Predict the 3D structure of the following.
Amino acid sequence: MIRLFIPTPLSQGQCILLDEATNHYVVHVMRRKHGDIIHVFNQESGEWEAFIETHKRKTTLTIQKQRRTPLADDRPRYHAVLSLIKPKNLEFAIEKLTELGITDIHIVAATRSNFRHTNLQRLMLIAKEATEQCERLDMPRIYDPMPLTKWVDSQLKAPTISTLFVADERSDNPSLAHHKMEPGNLGFFIGPEGGISVEDKKIILSLPSSVPISLGPNILKTETAAIVCGGLIILGSMNQ
């Protein structure tokens, strides 16, 4: 079933005119035609069946019946704090973290980050496509990249993460797999390629919510470590 993330409110009987790119995807890529049913969704409205109507070069969707109810406003949030890395590697991490169910993705420039900028619109498109494919209702929030020091300052002033697991390579800290996932908004921090610097480690561990952890004896790439942390946190929370 084709699923389209529509950011605006959805309701029965509503008619939606597809933009040019979405129209091309539905009609020419997925080869859907007049009368076919697809699903439209977002976290505030839930998921709905929609009837395709084609009018020459335009396509509209008429919403019919609801299939899934909206998400609760007070649901737990799961945060990934990623150091800037190569664009393709970062895009891969965004896709997989979306599939796992991470709700908030923060991108920071650490001392050893080889990159200082990223294409935020590209990352949001990747997250949108992954959201549509993995059947989740909510698209993760991806925040504007900022220096690590600025991000830590923002958390000190207005914390949004109750427990922040800090991956520390070559450490004797307990494995993340051995930690009990307490209720709350959980998150994890992954350093850049080449490892987190001593200065950055002091900065991130200055947060009261920080808990240093190990991810095992091997040195993982940033995107690999992010996927491991995301999976352990979400699965661990489900088992509580």
User: Anything to note?
Assistant: Residues 78-238 form a domain with the Alpha/beta knot fold (CATH 3.40.1280.10). The CA atoms of residues 134 and 194 lie 32 Å apart. The chain has a mean pLDDT of 93.
